[in-house]
Write a structure and sequence with these properties.
Layout: E1 2-3, E2 17-22, H1 28-42, E3 46-52, H2 54-57, H3 61-76, E4 80-85, H4 89-99, E5 102-108, H5 120-127, E6 132-136, H6 159-177, H7 186-204, H8 206-223, H9 235-282, H10 287-302, E7 304-309, H11 335-347, E8 351-352, E9 364-369, E10 374-382, H12 391-456, H13 464-494, E11 503-505, H14 507-517, H15 519-522, E12 526-530, E13 538-540, H16 542-559, E14 565-573, E15 576-583, H17 615-625, E16 629-634, E17 640-647, H18 657-668
Parallel strand pairs: 2-3, 2-5, 3-4, 5-6, 12-14
Antiparallel strand pairs: 1-6, 7-10, 8-9, 9-10, 11-13, 14-15, 15-17, 16-17
Helix pairs in contact: 1-3, 4-5, 6-7, 6-8, 7-8, 7-9, 8-9, 9-10, 9-12, 10-12, 12-13, 13-17, 14-16, 16-17
Length: 669
């Protein structure tokens, strides 16, 4: 390895990247190895690029595929790879190095350049004087092999036929033009041969054009009249030189133009395919439509068989199910194929043919990475695996996979949105029905509660059996009234019709009023209050907070035995007022503590205890409307505990007692 002259500018002093510049020749392997060693020694990122132009294309398709395989290996070793295009490889490499902050460029020593053209390393140093240049020794020359003839037409004519066609074209021109020598000057007839050379160069390439030039010149010299032929004159030599130069230049220009035209045609075809695929996916509203569109376009663009594998709820890929219309194109995946696809899904990385992971697998597995998450895996099987090494085709395939992933995510969220609309409409209808029903039942139930209580207090006192019936009627009427009140409150809370009457007050007063209101629901259960002195004022709606405590006490009365013990505790903690209602009953169902706060969810689904599962949902809604939060949990020993937290805030200052007393004395005097 030989280091060339280098300079480093202040603007790139901090850059440490290493750039390997490949040129589709035998030295590329050493270039990649040297760049990898330099990057590993310095702990720096490294890049590997191939700059394609007419010179690299003349190396042949085999050399290009070999270089692309080296790029893939470099990418597997941590390099950032790219295939660029440009007539001046040195200028393209210098521009890439500046954009990606590379401080060192590595390239192999190439063959001797033409006399009129500077070597590649010197041109790179002139284009990027800030780069450190490292030149790798070229490997020993390989035995000569048959090179493809330059300038071959895209039609793919064999080389002998192209040269025979060039000879035939020159001879045909001689048959037409030479009889005109008595009428025209030799120089004018030479222009006809020159026209033939240009046409041959455009149609058949550089080599046949040079041969056509030689044949035409020989025919012209042989047929020229002797009186016009003088060896001392150089006009024929000049004509030959001009014809050769024009043929060579024309062949070179047409070859470059043909390559650029083919490249532009390929880009247009890829862009068109991508546009049509995106347009077809834009109208897909079902997952099956995305599947069918993706399979159809991959078969048409890549001549490939494809399948989309979607995960289940556990993250395992499901076996593909082919649509009846495309069953003949659906690939058959084995257990090993599904395992490779699962690896690609789990690691969000490609696997299979053309990759570093399971390259012997006939399928290429591309994870469908959408903005939110991976939506599945695209399994593709192409006839020619080597085509996957071509960057243009691989990039187009990756773009197809990205569009399919986005389409699957869009379809998913369309389904989610439709389900949400259905649920919202159902919830709105149910709330409207509950509100109307609760409002209509509230008045007769209030009357029923009042009449039943009057019946128990009537004079003279009812007999024991009659009193028992009257008491049962009163209790059931109270329960029904509470149930209807809960339904109406939930409908009002969800519709936004509840306005909080917030005032600074003591929580112990609300706890006391809730205990008085729910005494009949607690029965003979012992209630213990643990409220320390000096609790700060809290800003809340007393009526709604009383409803929360009543619902919690009612639950304690419903789900605990008659001799249970209920505790109400309050404390100030971390800027929050914590109020807990606990009991020593059977506790909460395992794993359902959070679910109990949902609407129409009960602790025991099949139970003789009255209720519809709205009490805790109302409690949480009221507490959250106050800016607090609520949770439920089981106590370590036994029993359940419901805890609510309200923010303390900053209460207004109380009036000064001394100032108030002094003002009163002045007023009395």
């Amino acid at each position: 390895m030989q280091s060339s002259g280098s300079t480093t500018s202040s603007s790139t002093a901090a850059a440490r990247g290493v750039l390997a510049v490949l040129r589709a020749d035998s030295g590329d392997e050493r270039t990649v190895a040297a760049a990898a060693r330099l990057a590993a020694a310095d702990g720096a990122p490294w890049h590997a690029i191939l700059v394609e132009n007419a010179g690299t294309r003349r190396q042949g398709e085999a050399a290009r595929l070999r270089t692309l395989e080296l790029l893939r290996q470099a990418q597997a070793r941590g390099a950032v790879t790219a295939v660029l295009d440009g007539p001046d490889a040195a200028a393209v490499a210098a521009s890439y190095a500046r954009r990606h902050g590379c401080a060192t460029a590595v390239t192999a020593r190439g063959p001797a350049a033409a006399a009129w053209r500077a070597p590649f390393l010197r041109r790179l140093a002139q284009a990027a004087p800030e780069l450190d240049l490292v030149e790798v020794a070229a490997p020993a020359p390989a035995p000569p092999r048959a090179e493809p003839l330059h300038g071959a037409h895209a039609a793919g004519k064999p080389a002998p036929r192209r040269y025979l066609a060039a000879i035939a074209a020159s001879l045909g021109t001689a048959i037409v033009a030479l009889p005109l020598l008595p009428l025209l000057d030799v120089a004018n007839v030479a222009m006809l041969f020159l026209l033939t050379v240009v046409l041959v160069a455009i149609r058949l390439g550089r080599g046949p054009a040079i041969l056509a030039t030689l044949v035409g010149f020989c025919a012209l010299v042989a047929a020229a009249p002797r009186r016009q032929y003088d060896v001392s004159e150089f006009k024929y030599a000049v004509a030959l030189a001009v014809m050769l130069a024009v043929g060579w230049i024309t062949a070179r220009l047409t070859s470059d133009l043909r390559e650029q035209a083919e490249s532009a045609t390929g880009r247009e075809a890829r862009t068109r395919a991508l546009y049509e695929f995106a347009r077809a996916l834009s109208v897909a509203l079902q997952t099956e439509q995305v599947f069918e569109i993706t399979r159809r376009f991959l078969a048409r663009t890549f001549d490939a068989r494809a399948a989309i594998l979607l995960p289940d709820d556990t993250g395992r890929l499901r076996w593909p199910v082919a649509a009846p219309a495309s069953a003949e194109r659906a690939p058959l995946l084995s257990v090993l194929d599904m395992a490779a696809a699962q690896w690609a899904f789990d690691h969000a990385a490609p696997a299979g043919a053309g990759t570093a992971t399971l390259p012997s697998n006939p399928y290429l597995y591309l994870p469908l990475l959408a903005p939110m998450r991976s939506r599945g895996v695209l399994a593709v099987r192409v006839r020619d695996v080597a085509a996957l090494l071509v960057p243009e085709r691989r990039e187009l395939l990756d773009a197809f996979a990205a569009l399919a992933a986005i389409a699957l995510e869009r379809v998913h969220y369309v389904d989610v949105a439709q389900d949400a609309v259905v649920r919202m409409e159902g919830e709105r209808l149910r709330n409207s029905l509950l509100a109307a029903l609760s409002h209509d039942l509230r008045t007769p139930l209030t009357s029923l509660v009042g009449l039943s209580e009057s019946l128990t207090l009537s004079r003279p006192t009812l007999a024991a059996a009659q009193m028992e019936l009257a008491t049962a009627l009163r209790d059931e009427a109270r329960r029904m009234s509470t149930l209807v009140a809960n339904l109406l409150d939930m409908a009002r809370i969800q519709s936004g019709g509840v306005k909080l009457n917030l005032e600074w007050q003591l929580v112990e007063e609300t706890i006391g009023s809730a205990l008085r209101a729910c005494r009949w629901q607690l029965g003979g259960r012992a209630v213990d209050t643990r409220i320390p002195r000096g609790l700060p004022l809290v800003r809340f709606d007393a009526a709604l907070l009383e409803r929360v405590l009543c619902n919690l006490l009612e639950n304690a009365g419903k789900y605990t035995p008659p001799d249970a013990h209920v505790t109400i505790a309050a404390r100030a903690e971390e800027g929050m007022l914590v109020v807990a209602v606990c009991d020593d009953g059977p506790g909460l169902p395992a794993g359902r503590a959070d679910a109990l706060f949902e609407k129409f969810v009960r602790g025991r689904q099949e139970s003789s205890i009255a209720g519809v599962g709205l009490g805790l949902a109302i409690c949480r809604a009221i507490v959250e409307a106050h800016g607090g939060r609520m949770r439920a949990f089981n106590l370590p020993d036994a029993g359940a505990c419901f805890e609510l937290r309200l923010p303390l805030g900053e209460p207004p200052p109380l009036p000064d007692p001394e100032h108030h007393h002094h003002f009163t004395d002045q007023h009395e005097h």
